[in-house]
Amino acid sequence: MVNDEELTKKDSIYCSYGDTVHYAEPPKIFRRCEGNFLYDSMDVPYLDLQMWYSAASFGYRNSRLSEVLKTQVDTLPQLACQYLHEEKVLLAERICLANEKRFKEKGRVNFNVGGAQAIEDALKLVRNAKRRNLMFAFMGSYHGRTLGASAITSSYRYRRRYGHFSDRAQFIPFPYCFRCYYEKKREDCDFYCISQFEKLFETEYYSVIDTKVMESEYVAFFVEPIQATGGYVIPPKGYFKRLKKILDRWGILLVDDEIQMGIYRAGTLWAIENFEVTPDMIAFGKALTNGLNPLSGIWAREDLINPTVFPPGSTHSTFSSNPLGTKIGLEVMRMLEEEDYEKKVSESGKYFLSLLKDLQKKHREIGDVDGLGLALRVEICASDSFTPDRELTEKIFLEGLKGRLDYKGSNYGLVLDIGGYYKNVFTLAPSLYITRGEIDMAAELLDQLISRCKKA
Ligand SMILES: Cc1ncc(COP(=O)(O)O)c(C=O)c1O
User: Fold this and answer.
1) For residue 435, which phi and psi values (nearest 5 degrees)?
2) To the nearest whole percent, how much of the chain has pLDDT over 70?
3) For position 23, what pLDDT does the model report?
4) 267 exposure class (CB count in 10 Å sphere: 0-12, 13-18, 19+)
């Protein structure tokens, strides 16, 4: 085994730094994983509250999923996309039937590799449907880092060096009520943000519509129902219903990016179900294979994706719908049908949120906590409980990675991830199988970390 020091040195020589951000310097090295824990070179266990940005939602080295992967490796591990294999078709069928049940809409699935590629396919579909190329997206959004996906991702930082290949979206404020863009209060704002969006459609002189033909120049609104990288921001109930009404009036398609929040992260198969609207398209990835294979895809309404409008060759990757990924995805869908995940996830989430609320009472530095299912947020602030404190957030994060916390007399670490508009939010995406005991442990370790870091 290459030791930690040597590995870090080789990384600095041979690896591009362009493909990631290491918050810890030098980057933390892990050697093995099991269930909800990662283990470092000294075999110290780290409770993981982010599970690979929600890709490993069913726990590391999930034995059922590892088994089907091994079986597939021994039967049909490779096959060119031009041939059919059962796993692809049965997985597509399961996703379509699940959506038909939920949304009363028939549709089809198109697979690809990685979330950003699924977003690229969604961009192609909406551009094809409307023959125009302008999109709405939210401030605080993240849809991936290919050229097309970063054009609808709010941060200019991701585009600055590369110029425009696709028109950047028009970015609209997300209902981030704790830090309302319009400085309104949730209790009495009466969805002021929606009325501001609606105002854009009042006259052609606000630049988005032609009233003579009642057409919007914008063809789709790409949304994350709960903003992920933006800091696990949960919109108020009713918001998306009002938004959808406006979009429907102007024939603007709703593209639902479920790449991080889908597959029961927010207590339902798709997070958008919590907000009672039917999307025209859904992009998914990450947890569909528990992170064992970079399989992603889109589901779209039949009229948007049927072979006459989206003919063969419209999109392709050598590895899309590969037999290993689709086999694991199929097993994940089977698992979801066998157990009541909605109940399981929402009960664990409610318990976790209650402990976070207790922590908030104890630490003024926790300005906001919120959660839906097991998508939870802890916003770290100065002692006024509002001013974002990025420095303290980073300190807590790094301290967790040192692996020097104590739980019932043993040594532990805590894996967190930082998100949010001000990089001051812990975005918690624990395993969907996290136990009550592990939630207690998570709260205790967070408490130790915050107490230690705010004093330091
Ligand atoms: C909401 C959302 N969309 C798209 C992506 C991009 O997915 P990928 O990293 O697989 O390209 C991500 C990744 O974090 C995401 O969270």
Assistant:
1) -90, 165
2) 100
3) 82
4) buried
- By alpha-carbon position, which residue is closest to atom 3 of ligand 1? 143
Residues contacting ligand 1 via CB (< 6 Å): 53, 114-116, 119, 142-144, 224, 228-229, 257, 259-260, 285
Residue 456 confidence class, pLDDT cut points 50, 70, 90: low
How confident is the model over 372-408, as pLDDT tens digits?
999 999 999 999 999 999 999 999 999 999 999 999 9
Beta carbons of 142 and 230 less than 8 angstroms apart: yes
Task: Please tell me the pTM assigned to this model.
Answer: 0.98
Give CA–CA dist 329/95, Å, rounded: 10
- DSSP assignment of 21-70, as one string? --SSSSPP-EEEEEBTEEEETT--EEEESSHHHHTTTT-BT-HHHHHHHH
> Atom 4, ligand 1: which residue's CA is nearest?
143
Helix (H, G, I), strand (E, B) or coil at 257: strand
Residue 56 has pLDDT above 70, yes or no: yes
pLDDT value for 22: 77
Atom of ligand 1 nearest to the CA of 114: 10
| 248 φ/ψ sector (left φ>0, alpha ψ -120 to 50, else beta) | alpha
Provide CB contacts within 8 A for 229, sequence distance 6+. Answer: 142, 260, 419, 427
Mean pLDDT over 347-365 rounds to 98
Substitution candidate for ligand 1 out of 260, 282, 417 with most atoms within 8 A of CB: 260
* CB 86 within 8 Å of CB 330: no
DSSP state of 212: T
CA atoms of 163 and 333, how far apart (whole Å): 40
**DSSP classification of residue 381:** B
Distance in Å, CA 293 to ligand 1 centroid: 14
Count CA within 13 A, CB hemisphere, residue 447. 16
Residues in the chain: 456
Nearest to 335 by CA among 290, 282, 284: 290
Question: Is residue 329 over pLDDT 80?
Answer: yes
Quote the ligand 1 centre to 57 CA distance (angstroms). Answer: 15
Give the Å distance between the CA of 352 and the centre of ligand 1: 25
CA distances from 124 to 39, 136, 138, 168 (A): 41, 15, 19, 15
